[in-house]
């Protein structure tokens, strides 16, 4: 059976690789706020079970007020009493928040408990006081800054997430000799990647995520499975097909994780890479729903889906000089009218460099007009097309100015 200390050591080792339950609540709460999940009793019960297990009285009160749920007074009083007793014990053992790194203070216990019960105001106050006190070591201040990021993530406060990332970077720049510098930089990759996803910087996000996957240890923030999923989402939109092959298909850790835990994301990745466009459109529709239900990604799902459709169209057209609309419709599993209308919109906006020949029912690529096929589609090789687009946009601007002049008295 082993000694008590050995058992506690094994438990700590297991918990270190697990994300705290309360860090799973933001996504669940966000889903419950959407009309699609208003009647999902299973999700609601799972959400409340986590609250009950962790005696999250402050969070329970806030949730009931936010969702207009009838609060169970007996449950709240029971959890609140447990919180009060625990806080009294923690505060009795704490005399000073100016804690040196090698001193066994209990500010971490207080901070962890405030986060565990969802008392974000108190947690933010403790972490801020630790971070702002320059008498504390850089390692302690960085630890507090990481917690401030988690609090901001818990509350879906993107602005505060960015502020925390900046503070951690500043700390590491002025403390190059900090003993835990490598550890902090390694953890920061996952934290900063989440912030980059929230502000739609997918290229920076995938670079950070790919770097942190082999040495991921930020389980206190989110599960490794989420890191893998975010890596696929960010990589698909920001990397070229050759880079996907180099950095995804040849990445053993990523491929293993996709096969074991994220097979749907692997199918999404392979459908575009293997040019199975009808399957890709189906997987993209599923990805759209996943992004809509994620508090970080929901503001960007429409942009993401549009860019991925453009990417798929461009990838197919690069292999042809001309391609019939009917063939494209078959490839993507949609109707010919749908393909024509969507491509016409992307062409008019300058996002696809091709022309639609309505008479013959074909799409003529830019390279078919005399451009060097070795150049990328967005290169200014077809000067005629560039000129036509410029004239078209100039005419649109003049028409708008003319209409504006009719209603404004100079």
The number of helices is 20
Q: Please state roughly what percent of the residues sit in beta strands, choosing from under 5%, 5-15%, 15-25%, 25-35%, 35-45% or over 45%.
A: under 5%
Number of separate strands: 3
Give the overall pLDDT as a whole number: 86
Radius of gyration, in Å, reads: 27 Å
Helix content: 55-70%
Global structural class: mainly alpha
Low-pLDDT residue spans: 1-15, 97-104, 368-383
- Report the span from N to C terminus: 90 Å
Biggest sheet character: 3 strands, antiparallel
Strand order of the largest sheet: 1-3-2
Order of helices and strands: HHHHHHHHHHHHHHHHHEHHEEH
Query: Outline, from the CA principal axes?
Result: elongated
Question: Could you walk me through the main structural features you see in this protein, from its secondary elements to its overall organization?
Answer:
It is a single chain. The chain has 410 residues and is mainly α. A three-stranded antiparallel β-sheet has the order 1-3-2. It is elongated, with a radius of gyration of 27 Å. The protein starts with a helix and ends with a helix. Among the domains are: 93 residues, no CATH class; 40 residues. Helix 8 runs parallel beside helix 10. Strand 2 and strand 3 form a beta hairpin. The protein is built from 20 helices and three strands. Keywords: Proteasome. One of its GO terms (cellular component) is proteasome regulatory particle. Belongs to the proteasome subunit S10 family. This is 26S proteasome non-ATPase regulatory subunit 6. InterPro entries: PCI_dom, Rpn7/CSN1, Rpn7_N, RPN7_PSMD6_C, WH_DNA-bd_sf.
């Amino acid at each position: 059976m082993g000694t008590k200390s050995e058992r506690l050591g094994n438990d700590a080792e297991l918990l270190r690789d697990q994300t705290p339950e309360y860090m799973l609540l933001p996504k669940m709460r966000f889903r419950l706020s959407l009309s699609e999940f208003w009647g999902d009793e299973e999700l609601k019960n799972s959400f409340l079970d986590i609250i009950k297990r962790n005696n999250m009285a402050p969070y329970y009160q806030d949730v009931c007020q936010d969702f207009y749920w009838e609060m169970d007074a007996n449950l709240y009083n029971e959890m609140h009493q447990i919180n009060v007793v625990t806080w009294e014990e923690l505060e009795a053992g704490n005399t000073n928040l100016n804690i040196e790194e090698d001193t066994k203070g209990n500010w971490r216990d207080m901070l962890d408990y405030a986060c565990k019960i969802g008392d974000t105001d108190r947690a933010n106050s403790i972490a801020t006081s630790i971070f702002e006190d320059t008498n504390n070591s850089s390692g302690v201040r960085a630890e507090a800054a990481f917690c401030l990021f988690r609090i901001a993530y818990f509350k879906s406060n993107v602005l505060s997430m960015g502020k925390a990332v900046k503070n951690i970077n500043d700390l590491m720049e002025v403390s190059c000799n900090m003993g835990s510098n490598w550890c902090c930089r390694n953890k920061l990759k996952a934290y900063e990647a989440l912030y980059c996803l929230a502000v739609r910087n997918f290229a920076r996000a995938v670079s950070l995520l790919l770097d942190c996957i082999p040495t991921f240890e930020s389980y206190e923030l989110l599960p490794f499975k989420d890191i893998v999923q975010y890596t696929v989402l960010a990589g698909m939109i920001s990397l070229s097909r050759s880079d996907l092959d180099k950095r995804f298909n040849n990445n053993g850790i990523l491929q293993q994780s996709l096969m074991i835990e994220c097979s749907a994301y692997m199918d999404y990745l392979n459908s575009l890479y293997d040019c199975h466009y009808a399957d890709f459109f189906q997987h993209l529709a599923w990805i759209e729903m996943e992004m809509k239900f994620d508090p970080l990604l929901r503001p960007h799902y429409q942009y993401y889906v549009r860019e991925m459709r453009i990417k798929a169209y461009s990838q197919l057209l690069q292999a042809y000089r001309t391609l019939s609309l009917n063939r494209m419709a078959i490839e993507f599993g949609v109707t010919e009218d749908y393909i024509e209308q969507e491509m016409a919109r992307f062409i008019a906006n300058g996002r696809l460099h091709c022309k639609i020949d309505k008479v013959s029912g074909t799409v003529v690529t830019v390279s078919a007009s005399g451009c060097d096929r070795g150049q990328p589609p967005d290169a200014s090789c077809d000067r005629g097309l560039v000129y036509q687009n410029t004239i078209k946009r100039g005419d649109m601007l003049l028409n708008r100015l003319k209409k504006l002049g009719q209603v404004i008295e100079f």
